[in-house]
Design a protein that fits this description.
Length: 276
């Protein structure tokens, strides 16, 4: 259990109480009974509509009421995203949220990558929104003073890239951020940028390719995976993997705590205000 690995602050736990309570021992964590379970083969829409007393739905509602500071789940990611949008809402001008994670770079820094799979078919204007979200995340959560933002492409030349990338370039050029242009994966992971923007389909494949490369090289993971932040909704939501280990879950809880304390949500609220 993550609670046995250093997570000592009382947590609000959502789940079937009869199953969760015996695992806690004398831990001070509070259990909120959630009798309905979202199965992995449930559709996100059906889970939102037909299981209002699931742990995902009740946890998001508690976050919306400010009863908790952040919500972490390693369950059905589609249901989590649907519940987050429904219960929390998105910031002004954010049509689709993005999953973001900080991956290790070869130079020892962190590479903020988004979207990692929340939106698999993105318009160019959505990529521009992701750039703003990722830049704010790098500043608030990672402390990067002036994040360099790149757009993932198959070359640094502006003549390369698909139609989506080419159409997004002028939109990113016009943003009040430090946009460096198209970036190849090798350069991004070598330290050329702090934030790497991409379509959710491409980002998810990129992430899984990195994971596969580590397996092929028989290299241990550099650190617990924790989870990905769902950026664009009005609250701190961390979505972990269903195969998360206790150490991964502990890392996800600590990540949620760090982001909640970073002021990221306030920064995004101001950045995406109608007058911004």
């Amino acid at each position: 259990m993550a609670a046995a690995r250093g997570v000592v602050s009382p947590l609000a736990l959502f789940g079937v109480e009869a199953l969760v309570r015996p695992l806690l021992g004398a831990s001070p964590h509070h259990v909120h009974h959630a009798p309905e379970v979202v199965l992995m083969d449930d559709s996100a829409a059906a889970a939102l509509r037909e299981k209002p007393r699931s742990s995902i739905r009740l946890g998001m509602e508690a976050l919306a009421r400010a009863e908790v500071s952040a919500f972490v789940t390693c369950g059905h990611s589609g249901a989590a995203m649907a519940a987050a949008v429904h219960c929390l809402g998105t910031f002004e001008g954010v049509h689709r949220p993005a999953l973001v994670s900080a991956l290790p770079r070869a130079d020892g820094g962190a590479l903020v990558v988004l979207d990692l799979g929340a939106s698999v078919d993105c318009r160019p204007d959505q990529l521009a929104t992701f750039a703003r979200l990722g830049e704010a995340y790098a500043r608030c959560a990672l402390g990067v003073a002036a994040p360099r933002v790149g757009l993932l492409s198959n070359g640094e030349e502006r003549s390369k890239g698909n139609a989506q990338v080419k159409a997004a370039l002028p939109l990113l050029d016009a943003l009040p951020i430090r946009f460096v242009g198209p970036v190849e994966p090798h350069d991004a992971f070598a330290g050329a940028v702090d934030v790497l923007v991409c379509d959710g389909f491409v980002g998810n494949v990129l992430l899984k390719t990195v994971e596969a490369a580590l397996l092929l090289g028989d290299r241990p993971r550099a650190r617990p995976l924790g989870g990905a932040i769902l950026l664009g909704v009005r609250g701190v939501v961390v979505i972990g993997h269903g195969r998360a280990t206790p150490d991964d879950l502990r890392a996800a809880v600590l990540l949620a705590e760090k982001v909640a304390a970073s002021g990221l949500i306030s920064t995004l609220r101001a950045a995406f205000a109608p007058s911004a």
